Amino acid sequence: MKLTAFQFKLLCILISILLISAGVYFYTAKDTSLPQMTVQEKKARFKALIIPAVDEVYDDLMSQYNNVATSLKSGNNTDKIAKLKVEYKAKSDTELLRKLKPHPKSIAIAQAAMESSWATSRFFREAYNIFGVWSFDEDEPRIAALKKRGDKTIWVKEYSSVKESVSDYYRTIARNDAYKEFRILKMKTDDPFALVKKLDRYSEKGAEYGHELAAIIKFNKFHQLK
What residue segments make up the domains of the chain, in order of their start? Predict the structure, then answer.
């Protein structure tokens, strides 16, 4: 059947509308909310995304810590040790070791769960920012938070991968003066339930933050992960 000029024009308009609609959907789909998931599905997805990266970063840091501890005993690699002290702002061998030794994986995983809402937050989906780490450098990759503090825009770091986010988180805990007591206690115990009490300055929640982390670790049996 041959289409009239009007019918052909109408068909072209309908096709154009469909193409535009498809384009809009494709452009915005990555920013839409995740599909509905059960709690079990959400946690399974979180574990698959986060735990392998935490395992890898933890193993790398522990290997570095052991190598440095050996070098300090033998007196070798003095140039490398000196550079690490500058990088980690350590004034002594003891302080360097405190900063280099990674804390238990269970704490990192619990903080990732809390700060990223089990890997569903906008910061995670758009920037791989698992731990809510802020950015104060306009030259680094970052995204703006939707809410402001007064008239001030809050920026958070943007990472290229989950592993990069985990690495920067461990580095932040290692270098920031706010976690000095945490690092000292870390050298005496690997008990996550004792250690989280020293992370009160990570959040505005204060002491309550440690209680919530402990609850997440216990309920999800994260302390049993090796």
Answer: 39-224
pLDDT tops 70 at residue 22: no
Distance between start and end Cα atoms, the chain: 70
Number of Cβ within a 10 Å radius of residue 123: 22
- The first and second tokens of residue 16, run together, are 């154009």
Say which residue, 14 or 95, is predicted with more confidence. Answer: 95
pLDDT in tens, 166-194: 999 999 999 999 999 999 999 999 999 99
Which residues, at least 6 apart from 56, have a Cβ–Cβ distance to it below 8 Å? Answer: 163
CATH code, residues 39-224: 1.10.530.10
- Spatial distance between the Cα atoms of 54 and 104, rounded to a whole number of angstroms: 10
As a whole number of angstroms, the distance between CA 130 and CA 46 comes to 11
Span 13-34, average pLDDT: 42
* Angstrom distance (rounded) from CA 137 to CA 147: 19
Look up residue 100 and give its two tokens: 């280099």
DSSP lists the bridge partners of residue 148 as 153
What are the residues whose beta carbons fall under 8 Å from the beta carbon of 91, sequence distance 6 or more?
A: 85
The whole-number average pLDDT for the span 17-36 is 45
**Structure token digits, residue 185:** 């206690």
Q: What is the pTM of this model?
A: 0.82
- Map residue 202 onto helix, strand or coil: helix
